[in-house]
Amino acid sequence: MGADEQPSPTRKRDREEEGEDLSDGGAAEKRPRAEGASLLGLATYEDEDEDEAARGHANGRRAVEPDEEEDDDEEDDVRRAPERRPRQAELRRDCPYLDTVNRQVLDFDFEKFCSISLSNLNVYACLVCGKYFQGRGLKSHAYTHSLEAGHHVFINLQTEKAYCLPDGYEINDPSLEDIRHVLNPRFTKEQVLNLDKNKQWSRALDGSNYLPGMVGLNNIKETDFVNVTIQSLMRVTPLRNFFLIPENYQHRKSPLVHRFGELTRKIWHARNFKGQVSPHEFLQAVMKASDKRFQIGVQSDPVEFMSWLLNTLHAKLKSSKKKNRSIIHDCFQGELEVVKEVHRKHIMEKREDGDEPNGEAGSVVGTADGIVTETSKVPFLMLGLDLPPPPLFKDAMEKNIIPQVPLFNILKKFDGETVTEVVRPSIARMRYRVTRLPKYLILHMRRFTKNNFFVEKNPTLVNFPVKNLELKDYIPLPKPKENHKLRSKYDLIANIVHDGKPGEGCYRVFVQRKSEEAWYEMQDLHVTETLPQMVALSETYMQIYEQHE
């Protein structure tokens, strides 16, 4: 027998029957082969050939002999090509592996990427260990995992269909419905309308209770500024109701809109497996949409983030350029009348630099003493309030008294008479008057001032009412149209607070639960009930007020 030849299985069997001792002979046969040639493939036994042939016939192609297979590689590739078409999986209800499904390890909050190939196409979740794998074909990562780990039940994260691998049949069993609801929470219009009447607690898998809509958000790394913003916006009923029903924005292409909608549905879902949500996918969409202006691991300002988020969502949701309307503007947009007094020489300097005056609709009036007055109407989504400067010196008790100021004092900025001096973009005197109030009024206190060296924080406490903020008593408001009532009363629904030093510290938020009119303090994963009196005792940074109906 030559060095490159291999004993056929039939000859081996004949020699065994004749009683030959093959142990040494086998070794003798192996030695010259090791010296003369590289290792060849294992011998193919007849019964394996029969299995291969049967498999070939089952797949609609003829069985191929091993020798022929080596010669006709190209033909074989052509014959295999049709196999890659999507095949109709068998539908079965009697899967024996359903008891291996482990709901404790399932977490659909993270990005839907295969844990091996990092691809987001055709991803399946293993319902036994919770990992994500791509595909379910013979050479796919999910198929390999099912053989290596002995995990057999998988769910497609896109279509929500469950499959048993390596057998390949689709599982049709109602016991997996709760997993589908966690993967993609759904709400009917009736459920959405009744959300604020629901007083029922939900139970997580670990036995802990949670309130739908009052769940903690995971702080991935210095992302508390995102968490407090999301928790505040979840109290804005029309915005929440809009995002709870995906049909409202299904034709929008922006990933940010869809991720925000998913996060809204997860926060308000009553059948979650755990009492908290991780905003991981939303944060990835934020990083991409903001060109890493806001990112994981870098502390940012919730006022900046709120402003960016509302403007970006509006731009992605608006119906058309002419109408320029969206759910964001319906909820938050008001209008200011701005009277700007600029000295004529500043205008001339500006024009020499190539800057033209603002393009807002308005009028320009010149006066004798060289001061030019510009009046314009400007839309706003939030109003910034200036705090009085804190005292520089300690008092007799050798302590810095933390000053307090009523909200009504700092609201005088918008009475149309109080002058605010601005330096940028040019020195001017400004007067502001509210001409249209929004349904939801966002106020932010300018606590942080930046100079060339460092950021300073103003510790002044603001005294504000939690209920019945009546604006018409403090700022002049436009007269309502005929048959319309002036709605100027507001209730607080969210209050964001900053604790600690500027540039460091952390953010927490007080929010109201409408069904019981109770207040909750939220800081990342911690959710605790608190008294309404406690809400007003902290260094408030941003507030959302809701207009009385």
From TrEMBL:
GO CC, any one term: spliceosomal complex
Chain residue ranges for the region called Disordered: 1-89
InterPro entries in the record: Papain-like_cys_pep_sf (IPR038765), Peptidase_C19_UCH (IPR001394), Ub_carboxyl-term_hydrolase (IPR050185), USP (IPR028889), USP39 (IPR033809), Znf_RING/FYVE/PHD (IPR013083), Znf_UBP (IPR001607)
Keywords: Metal-binding, mRNA processing, mRNA splicing, Nucleus, Spliceosome, Zinc, Zinc-finger
SMART domains per record: ZnF_UBP (SM00290)
UniProt key word Zinc: yes
All residue ranges annotated as the USP domain in the record: 215-548
GO biological process, one term: spliceosomal complex assembly
This protein's name: USP domain-containing protein
UniProt organism field: Sorghum bicolor (Sorghum)
